[in-house]
Amino acid sequence: MSTTPPTTPRPRLPSPLQEVRDDRFARHGVTLTLKRDDLIHPDLPGNKYRKLFLNLDAAVAAGHTTLLTFGGAYSNHLRATAAAGRLLGLRTIGIVRGDELAGRPLNPSLTRCAADGMRLHFVDRTTYRRKTDPEVLAALLRTTGAEDSYVIPEGGSNSLAVRGCTALGEELRGRTHTAAVACGTGGTLAGMAAGLAPGQRALGIPVLKGGFLGPEIRALQERAFGAPTANWHLDERFHFGGYARTSPELIAFADDFEDRHGLPVERVYVAKLLYALTALSEEGAFPPGAEVTAVITATEPATATDQSSTSR
Predict the structure, then answer these.
(1) For the domain bounded by 17-43+158-295, which CATH number is listed?
(2) pTM for the complete prediction?
(3) What is the number of alpha carbons within 13 Å of residue 13 lying toward its C-beta?
(4) What local confidence, expressed as pLDDT, does residue 4 receive?
(5) Mean pLDDT of the chain
């Protein structure tokens, strides 16, 4: 990343591959491998580094001194943007969905954002849903005093982010049958699929419910590459009720996976991805001899709650 100051840790690329020996895959002749994108950068792990670095280059090249972006109360994207601002000496503003959160104690994710210098601006959910409308966006920029800021969309997913994620697919060329990733806004899947070699497949596991993600991913690919690719699909069954929502079954699965393999499992994205791949393996969704790669995009466990509404 050309904007990285000399004192900032350099990204670890390509991210390492780690085989996991798990009988729930092995008895079906399937190999599970983890693509450890969580190890790319201590402050910008996983898809957050890949989605942000071209945007950060563009912001700095254009002379912007402020980054403004959007997210829910548990947004990893907000945390990564705040960290990037700290590393690069840029102001950051986070538009957070849910005005009922204003004045309440910050959760660990938003506490980290604030500690990294991000100014949090809470808006009601109706305004948040309309955040891309030109009039609403202009009003938010005026209200926050950030008219000249570089605006990064929710989840970081724009054409630059999608192009940044093509390297993920390129790093997996010839290394896997199916590359799978948990999806919030779909930018990582859109870029990864475009980077894979012919014959490889990309699988997205949405962590939100609603069935809206397919058209959004196709639109992201059209804007980034001129046309969508035909090598990806979504399995919408494993959202467990929506973003940051969980269940005793999912928690038990994540705890068991950690015990089996000695690896921490982040609950909002990674647990749902690994649960889905395990279920699909048991269903016979992967042919014998296939290697399935789970892209680990998040690090420390995030606080999930059955009371949280959808977010990205």
Answers:
(1) 3.40.50.1100
(2) 0.90
(3) 18
(4) 53
(5) 92
